[in-house]
Amino acid sequence: MADQAFVTLATNDNYAKGAMVLGKSLRNHKTSKKLVVLIGPHVSEPSRAVLGRIYDEVRLVDVLDSGDTAHLAMMKRPDLGVTFTKLNCWTLTHYSKCVFMDADTLVVSNIDELFDREELSAAPDPGWPDCFNSGVFVFRPSNETYGKLLQHCTEHGSFDGGDQGVLNSFFSDWATADIRKHLPFIYNMSSIAIYTYLPAFKQYGANAKVVHFLGKTKPWSYMYDPKLKVMRGDVQEAATHPGFLLEWWTLYSSCVVPMLHQEYGDQPFHSGCEDLPPQSEHAPPSISSAERKQRWEQGQADYMGIDSFDSIEKKLAVFLK
Q1: What is the top-level taxon of the source organism (predicted)?
Q2: At residue 25, does pLDDT exceed 60?
Q3: 84: helix, coil or strand?
Q4: Secondary structure (3-state) at 147
């Protein structure tokens, strides 16, 4: 299947790290498809070199300087710059079918069966299930579709300011036309949803195939100690199951960081992996029950600490006894 490919996008070095881990996770789970990464001009040369060792094709895309139809569209809607960049995936017409995956996703099982689906197949968004989440979707590259998408962007913009709003508006019949284009949630399991419906995660989470680290805090936003296998960071902003985060960091530290060191050579760079001081020095201050309740209501639970899945399960077990 040389004419089928997984496609992702990295606009800077941080998202390039995500793309590296995504590519390695696809390789580790024995995909038979090609791997393609679209990169922006702000991705450094060492990062490009590492991506080139993981992906079959590294393609530079920069709609701001392209001079083509995307450039003309940008003049009318400069607010949609990143969206226009992502839509470049439809220009990969040397492939007959592709699966786009955001760089903040992680594959935990082989997903080649997605290529049995048709355009536009995607999983529902946990925030509004009548919309699909554009972090994982099946599509057919087409210059005609690309042109129509750019025109749609120019005329209608995006209701959420990004690519998801544009794509849901363009493929507006996704929710009603063909249930076969609704991917099961396990192909795009958002880390946020784990904590909004814990019983379902407990029932179906073991079948997850793709984890999507939604939210402002990405896996590469943390620090990691490879020796102790512990992460540190702002746990109040974390919105994911620690096990998946640890899986991301284990793959990144063992497979990606050595390649980055080789490419950077003597140049300094921030890998995020280092020996960390004892946890007590970084432990968040204790909070009152009222403040903890308020943080829960604001969606700021301590998912890595006292409000972790394991802690909640233990508390429920005590209560039920």
Answers
A1: Eukaryota
A2: yes
A3: helix
A4: helix
| Confidence grade of residue 201 (pLDDT, cut at 50, 70, 90) | confident
CATH code, 26: 3.90.550.10
Same domain, 264 and 180: no
Cβ proximity of 89 and 98 under 8 Å: yes
How far CA 151 is from CA of 145, 146, 162, in Å, comes to 10, 9, 15
Do 293 and 168 share a structural domain? no
CA distances from 198 to 185, 240, 312 (A): 14, 12, 10
- Please indicate, yes or no, whether residues 203 and 179 belong to a single structural domain of this protein: no
pTM above threshold 0.85? no
Query: Residue 39 forms beta bridges with which residues?
Result: 10, 60
Are 298 and 182 within one domain?
no
Overall number of domains in the chain? 2
Q: Between β-strands 230-232 and 189-190, what pairing exists: parallel, antiparallel or unpaired?
A: unpaired
Angle at 241 between CA 319 and CA 291, to 5 degrees: 55
Q: Residue 181: pLDDT above 50?
A: yes
- Give yes or no: residues 218 and 240 share one domain: yes
Q: In what order do the strands lie in the sheet with 189-190?
A: 105-107, 210-212, 189-190
Bridge partners (DSSP) of residue 190 are 212
pLDDT in tens, 63-118: 766 667 887 787 788 778 888 899 999 999 999 999 999 999 999 999 999 999 99
Domain end (from 161, 190, 219): 190
73 and 172 both lie in a single domain:
yes
Residue 8 belongs to domain spanning: 4-190
